[in-house]
Amino acid sequence: ERRNPGQPEFHQAVREVLDTLGPVLAARPQYAEAGLVERLLEPERQIIFRVPWTDDHGRVHVNRGYRVEFNSALGPYKGGLRFHPSVDIGVVKFLGFEQIFKNALTGLGIGGGKGGSDFDPHGKSAAEVMRFCQSFMTELARHIGEHTDIPAGDIGVGGREIGYLFGQYRRITNRWEAGVLTGKGQGWGGSVIRPEATGYGAVLFAAEMLKARGEALDGLSAVVSGSGNVALYTIEKLQQLGANPLTASDSSGYVVDDKGIDLALLKQIKEVERGRVSEYATRRGPSARFVRQGRVWEVPADVAFPSATQNELDVEDARTLIANGVKAVSEGANMPTTPEAVHLFQEAGVAFGPGKAANAGGVAVSALEMAQNASRVAWSRERVEDELAGIMRSIHAVSHETAERYGSPGDYVTGANIAGFERVADAMLAQGVI
Ligand code: NDP
């Protein structure tokens, strides 16, 4: 903490991983001898830069841009960009650190990185967002590349922003280098299923956890937080698999719909109009209501999908969910559940899928997008869906099996951390002290 002051999210993410690595470090002393943990905790490179831009009234604003290139033992740095006022170096480091293990778990040859800015896209015009993205990329371009570092989206960065970023990269470099960003539009190098992948994957992971206990998603009710990219496609896949998602939320509150979420309406409001979830309750009719500043976790349901942001589900929320009989929690967001809440779920026997495993579907399909870009061939929807399903099954299997092997059966946190760690650690050992 003395070395990295003022970075509580980074400390939280590191502590959560180190708490589970004891058995593997004891079993394989060569890791400690090679200083692996110390090296893993220090990013290979941290870039911080000025992002000046002009608003529609001619006023100049200055934001701060970040890219943390954390670990490239398994492949080029890979991880999203987040635009949100809460972004600082500690948040970017927590996300980058998590990304190392998540990417290792996919088995796809990608290192870990993350970036973003404290820019707040809410209330900005499309022209302002474009000018911001162009200024951000003007600096970022010198640090990234298809063989070096490949950013993607995250909170506040979706298809529109990736388009502006790609346009500026292409202009600066004079290269049509599709593989430099993922989450591109489908007419110009993007993969089918990339927008859906994280949410779909989180639901597939929950289905695998339930299957391991002899249960199924079909017929279960679900509580989902957020109403962005991850939440919308979590809701979509839940409905495809016969479950009934009841909620969505944003930073102003949540909506609950007794008939189940009308996804077409929610998509229209969020994706087309870029509006707020409260709108949904106004337009949906009597089955839905908006609860301002409410905790979505108070809605009784069989399965829960935190899909908004870090530390959005605390120990009180966990008590409520457990009292309401929740069977499984699958993290679509990164680190949405506080450590105390995770312990409560595990003690209560709730199947708990940590983000590193449960939300890895997004980055996995990003890696498939890179594969398509490299071969200049676009795959079919069926092929990408099949690959995604296979990857989620394999992440579940390796997390489950590793937890058992290290004496913590059913503990997906330990299983995912150790399985991801082993892959990165072995690559780092083989590549020497660098
Ligand atoms: P979006 O920007 O599309 O949506 C974010 C949603 O979460 C919005 O509904 C937003 O509400 C809400 N939210 C964000 N910050 C807060 C906050 N501080 N308090 C309350 N609500 C908040 O982002 P994504 O759906 O892409 O990302 C959601 C989560 O999933 C993040 O943790 C991200 O890291 C993780 N993730 C995303 C992946 C992807 O492929 N996109 C891949 C893996 C993980 P509001 O509009 O009011 O801010």
TrEMBL record:
| Species classification | Bacteria, Bacillati, Actinomycetota, Actinomycetes, Kitasatosporales
Q: Which InterPro entries match?
A: Aminoacid_DH-like_N_sf, Glu/Leu/Phe/Val/Trp_DH, Glu/Leu/Phe/Val/Trp_DH_C, Glu/Leu/Phe/Val/Trp_DH_dimer, Glu/Leu/Phe/Val_DH_AS, Glu_DH, Glu_Leu_Phe_Val_DH, NAD(P)-bd_dom_sf
Matching entries from PANTHER family are given as: NADP-SPECIFIC GLUTAMATE DEHYDROGENASE 1-RELATED (PTHR43571:SF1)
Family the entry assigns:
Belongs to the Glu/Leu/Phe/Val dehydrogenases family.
Name of one Pfam family that matches: ELFV_dehydrog
CDD domains referenced in this protein's UniProt entry, alphabetically? NAD_bind_2_Glu_DH (cd05313)
SMART domains per UniProt: ELFV_dehydrog (SM00839)
Q: Which organism is it from?
A: Streptomyces xanthochromogenes
Q: Which NCBIfam families match?
A: PRK09414.1 (NF006929)
Q: What protein does this entry describe?
A: Glutamate dehydrogenase
Alphabetical keyword list? Oxidoreductase
Q: Where is the Glutamate/phenylalanine/leucine/valine/L-tryptophan dehydrogenase C-terminal domain?
A: 191-432
Q: What does the annotation say about its assembly with partners?
A: Homohexamer.
